[in-house]
Amino acid sequence: MSTWNDLAKHQRATDTRHMLELFAEDANRAADFSIRAGEMLLDYSKTNIDATCRDMLIALAQAQGVAAKRDAMFAGEKINETEGRAVLHIAQRADDAAVIELDGVDVMPALRETRARAYAFAEAVRSGAFTGQGGRITDVVNIGIGGSDLGPAMATLALEPFHDGPRLHYVSNVDGAHIGDTLERLDPATTLVIVASKTFTTIETMTNAETARKWMAQKVADPAAQFAAVSTAADKTAAFGIAPERVFGFADWVGGRYSMWGPIGLGLMIAIGAVRFERFLAGARAMDAHFVEAPFAQNMPVMLALVGIWHNQLCGHATRAVLPYDQRLSRLPAYLQQLEMESNGKRVGMDGEDLGRQSGPVVWGEPGTNGQHAFYQLIHQGTRVVPCEFLLAAQGHEPDLAHQHRLLAANCLAQAEALMKGRSLDEARAIMAAKGLTGAELDRQARHRVFPGNRPSTMLLYPKLTPFTLGQIVALYEHRVFVEGVILGINSFDQWGVELGKELATALGPVLEGADASGKDGSTQALVGYLRTAGV
């Protein structure tokens, strides 16, 4: 079995090799280093991974127990060891025949009952059977943060062509500008507000919820009648005034950033309807089956994870750019930031010891082609290597604008090609010579036009962005993060790193209102002083 040290030796031995050499040596490299899952294609041939490296990476995954941990997750074992919980977001999209037991009890009947209630409520809102106090619901405001916002907000935007329900709006930031700008355009009498907070105590969410209730009370007699909640805190939702039939809970074995498949997706259900939401679940379920059944070399989540491990932990590339050439996936990089960085941004392993290597990468990105006119300069010619992950549909949703989609696709493929091929000094000199430059000026100008190339990328292609396809994509990345976490020996399903800032913010609230700040450090005291003076 290969080890981290074996892989590190291989990386050092092949570090300066140009990936074009790999294509020259293997005429079938594009096929050999591609994977299909249904109609989806992942091409990772534009990396410096060769057959030997791939075998070593797969051996590492086997040695780290990826298959056993995967099977334990699907079986309902409590693999979130620091919190003593199972990890069963996959149950939310399991088919109707599935039996998934936790502590000897099948979790599926209760899950199906909640889903059926959510579907019924969503359809009542869509059909007009459920109305506001001024008539049919025209707008829905989802108030949440983190996993209660990023996933459903991303998916709602991604599936815009399938919307045939009320308009959806997502509010997350406690900055009053966010909810203020959202609500000022809406009519309280025809607006439904969904408050998404498992505990119904999340400070940002509940502050925004109170603001929304006060806004609604200015026009309607019973504001709570136009609120729904995604929460398990029945006592708190009742105290808020929300009727039990409009409260939809989910278990603690569903982490926030993995929760859009269930009631957290209520806004998306209202936007696209239960039938299309079922297709969204079906896409994720298909990726689940692929993840469980495919051998590692042809397993898309496993190989995408191993490419990430190779680039980050072994090649030392600290960031990863996610570049969807699909405008409706513009929120995907932000969603994946949370999925990856909250899951695998750890410094302690499952054994409680410090990690001996880097943990998860910095994930960032923007949709193409916008990024080409912004940060691609650094990607192509900067001193840091940034592995890129391109996503592209074969077809858009605008048949009359097919020529624009072909231009989009050409740009996407060209960027990946340019990152790999680059441009040599001799090629740049020839270009400058053709422009009439000579001597020292030719050399100076040519050097500015050199592209080092040999910069890695992957390409995820799919026929069209549909509910089914989006389900595949999200589940692919969920499982990719899981595999990386197992290989690194960390718990991808807790998030203790968000707690300290929350605790300190709670303590600083009274200080900003005038309480004694002497227990704070000098910098914090000075900053508080400025804000008090300026009228915070």
UniProtKB/TrEMBL annotation:
What are the protein's UniProt keywords?
A: Cytoplasm, Gluconeogenesis, Glycolysis, Isomerase
Q: Does the keyword Methyltransferase apply?
A: no
BP-aspect Gene Ontology terms = gluconeogenesis; glucose 6-phosphate metabolic process; glycolytic process
Identify which top EC class this enzyme belongs to.
Answer: isomerase
One Pfam entry name: PGI
The question of whether Isomerase is a record keyword is answered with yes
- Which Gene3D superfamilies does the record cross-reference, listed alphabetically? 1.10.1390.10, Glucose-6-phosphate isomerase like protein, domain 1
What one GO molecular function would you report for this record?
carbohydrate derivative binding
Can you state which reaction this protein catalyses?
alpha-D-glucose 6-phosphate = beta-D-fructose 6-phosphate
Q: Which GO terms describe its cellular component?
A: cytosol
- Assigned EC number: 5.3.1.9
| Cell compartment(s), UniProt | Cytoplasm
Q: Name the domain of life this protein comes from.
A: Bacteria
Catalytic machinery residues: E342 (proton donor), H373, K502
Which pathway is this protein assigned to? Carbohydrate degradation; glycolysis; D-glyceraldehyde 3-phosphate and glycerone phosphate from D-glucose: step 2/4; Carbohydrate biosynthesis; gluconeogenesis
Homology family: Belongs to the GPI family.
Q: What job does the chain carry out?
A: Catalyzes the reversible isomerization of glucose-6-phosphate to fructose-6-phosphate.
Question: This chain belongs to which protein, by name?
Answer: Glucose-6-phosphate isomerase
